[in-house]
Amino acid sequence: MSQAARQEIVLAGARALRRQVDRQNRWADLTLWAGAGILAVLVLAAVFASVIAPYQPDTQHLTEGFLHPSGAHLFGTDAFGRDIFSRALYGLRVDLLLGIIATYVPLVVGMALGAVAGYYRGWPETVIMRLTDVTIALPFIVLILAIVAIVGPGLTGVYIGEIAVSWALYARLTRAEMLVLREKQFIVAAQALGYSTPRILFKHALPHLVRPNLVFSMADIVLNILVLASLSFLGVGVQPPTPELGAMIAEGGQYLLSAWWIATLPGLVLVLLGSGFSLIGDALADRFGQRLELPR
Amino acid sequence: MSALGHGGAARPEAERAEVDNTLELRRLTVAFPTRDGLAVAVNDVSLSIAPGQVTGIVGESGSGKTMICRAILGLVPRPGAILAGEILWRGRDLASASPSGLRRVRGREVAMIFQDPSSALDPLFTIGDQIAEPLRAHRGLSRSAAETEAIELLGRVGIPSPRERVNAYPHQLSGGMRQRAMIAIAISCKPALVLADEPTTSLDVTIQDQILGLLAELRDEYGMSMVLVSHDLGVIAQNADTVAVMYSGSIVETAPTAKIFSATRHPYTAALIQALPTIHVQERRSGLEPIPGQPPSLDDLPPGCPFGPRCQYATDACQAVDMTRVAVGDGHDSACPFAETVMVAS
Questions:
Q1: Which end of chain B has fewer CB atoms at under 10 Å, N or C?
Q2: Distances A130 to A103, A175, A182, A220 between C-alpha atoms, Å
Q3: Which of A15, A3, A35 minimizes the C-alpha distance to A218?
Q4: Residue B270 — pLDDT band, cuts 50, 70, 90?
């Protein structure tokens, strides 16, 4: 075989490998941009709800109930003649805000506790991890229902409940990562250089712990929003007349056969919101080589 | 041996001249609890590391070389611990020092160079950041002053075009360059003692030579003492002033480097030298001789001399040897009480 032919074979192999990597990257990019696009639209819609919404979300027009979706009412109207499109926009605002706060406050708390447990070991680890076990062992919804029962129905109870519960998963995830990290040579090297413990934890360990937590948080946001929707559906979440997607689905459920749009269209918005976060989570997981699920 | 000789008189700063930079290990014992009992990684080790000198520690894997270095800095990995003994440094005992007391010593007075620079450097920071960090944390330099000095240090350790390389991440450098960067971090605060734990084991032979040459230069320039840990007798022979030979957690022999080869006084050292490949190996009467058997398990050491079961000269008396080294010459100690009679005779 001539040298040119051999060279050609090697180059062809390299090109094929390149194409495969490109294809994988393009797919991850596509997922990421699709998710980001969906989210961008929904976030903008929620932020500018007061500008976009053609009607007041709470104003009732009892003579205009059960109107089909049309140019005047994009998503139609509900039993009280309220514009479902406007209500969905305001509802999105409530859901998004809860999703973000009930995910990232626990993320920070859980990461701090998990990092301390994994780094110091000993009794801080025992205390923190047993607390985590107890929190995770109790069924999520039941625990939140209990807290809501104490605080009283409404958003406050849901916020307190979700934050009190979801830190535990981040603590568990972070501790596991920290146990691996603390044995890494560069952490030992940082100790050998006489750096203070806060410096080692925050400057050297933390950047390595953010990634898996960020990937998991994408799945967690969806979960938290769905919990709010479920609680509202059960009647202990957002109270009427405040618009919230889960509550709107619950209200529309009884008219599903006669006026399908009342429950279905807000439901689709919720699906879209969940898909947006999930797509981003998938893309990040692909990119970082992280698992999206946690062993419970 | 060393051009500097004893004492810190050649140190650049006058204030350091008054400090005695001898590191003294006294009956140091480091152990790990295991399911089968206590694994003794460092067994009753006494060693004096003279200022301005390179002290080599040689021994096979698991003989406790690295654990001595980590014990000096108080970094024995859990669940291991220093069970007994003292580590005397500038009038303090590091073995019983508080965490904050140890932190003041680490990096500033005693620095460590690790075996594998690719894992000892943080992959998320540029090497410039990592060299500047001790300067800022320990010497209070401003960001720009630290960066200027980081560039100087990179140049000093022989990294070409340091001005561009400060912004390189560890994965963008070769193994030799990474070890140079690691050395720059270690010397950034002008420590009086550098613990080099197998600094060239992960590098190829030509780079190994360059790195060891660099360490020797820096030692002379900064007047540092150095502990050079290696499993390679050749590396130790070329670079150390004195040698301590370790076996199963004990130091069996210490001697000035030349003496360890010309006047060996411990059967283990002799066996190690016999097992050393050289280009003259055919001329050696006995050829290349491996040491029979395996080192003992650290949680089940034989009574007396740990080398006894593998030693060709061993007698029943060896089971009562307590491994305290006795002087057999000028600066030359051996833990074998029979070395004089047995080895000279053979």
A1: C
A2: 21, 12, 21, 22
A3: A35
A4: confident
Per residue, the 3-state secondary structure of chain B, as one string, reads CCCCCCCCCCCCCHHHHCCCCCEEEEEEEEEEEECCEEEEEEEEEEEEECCCCEEEEECCCCCCHHHHHHHHCCCCCCCCEEEEEEEEECCEEHHHCCHHHHHHHECCCEEEECCCHHHHCCCCCCHHHHHHHHHHHHHCCCHHHHHHHHHHHHHHCCCCCHHHHCCCCHHHCCHHHHHHHHHHHHHCCCCCEEEEECCCCCCCHHHHHHHHHHHHHHHHHHCCEEEEEECCHHHHHHHCCEEEEEECCEEEEEEEHHHHHHCCCCHHHHHHHHCCCCCCHHHCCCCCCCCCCCCCCCCCCCCCCCCHHHCCCCCHHHHHCCCCCEEEECCEEECCCCHHHHHHHC
Residue pLDDT, tens place only, A128-183? 999 999 988 888 788 888 888 888 888 888 888 888 888 999 999 999 999 999 88
- Nearest partner of B174 among B140, B203, B205, judged by Cα: B203
- Three-state DSSP at A76 gives coil
Confidence band, pLDDT 50/70/90 cuts, at residue B340: confident
- Give the residue carrying structure tokens 């932020």: A47
In degrees rounded to 5, what are phi and psi of residue A68? -65, 155
Q: Determine, for residues B137 and A199 on separate chains, whether the beta-carbon distance falls below 8 Å.
A: yes
Parts of chain A with a pLDDT under 50 = 292, 294-296
- Respond yes or no on whether the N-terminal peptide bond of residue B79 is cis (omega within 30° of 0): yes
| Amino acid at position A181, single letter | L
Query: What's phi and psi for A195, nearest 5 deg?
Result: -70, 150
The CB density around residue B197, as the number of other CB atoms within 10 Å, is: 22
Put simply, the chain B residues between 306 and 345 with a CB less than 8 A from any chain A CB are none
Q: Are A231 and A246 a contacting pair, CB within 8 Å?
A: yes
The arithmetic mean of pLDDT across residues B122-137, rounded, is 92
Q: Do B106 and A186 touch (CB under 8 A)?
A: no
pLDDT of residue B320 exceeding 70, the answer is yes
CB contact under 8 A, A189 and B121: yes
B22/A80 Cα distance (integer angstroms): 88
What are the backbone angles phi and psi of residue A152, rounded to the nearest 5°? 105, 150
Six-digit token string for B18: 């008054």
Q: By a Cβ cutoff of 8 Å, what residues of chain A touch chain B? A: 121, 183-186, 188-196, 199, 203-204, 207-208
Instruction: Using alpha carbons, list the distances in angstroms from residue B218 to A181, B47, B49, B191, B221.
Output: 32, 24, 18, 11, 5
What is the rounded CA–CA span in Å between residue A53 and residue A93? 12
DSSP state of A73: S
Distance between CA atoms of residues A170 and A217, nearest Å: 9
- At A4, which helix (H) or strand (E)? helix A3-47
Using CA coordinates, name the residue in chain A closest to B76.
Answer: A188
Task: For residue A229, count CB atoms less than 10 angstroms from its CB and return exposed for 0-12, middle for 13-18, buried for 19 or more.
Answer: buried
Find out whether B318 and B308 touch, Cβ atoms under 8 Å: yes
Per-residue pLDDT tens digits for B72-115: 999 998 888 999 999 999 988 999 889 889 999 998 999 999 98
Closest residue of chain A to B100, computed from CA coordinates: A196
Beta carbons of B257 and B327 less than 8 angstroms apart: no
In this complex, which of A121, A185, A194 lies closest to B114 when CB atoms are compared?
A: A185
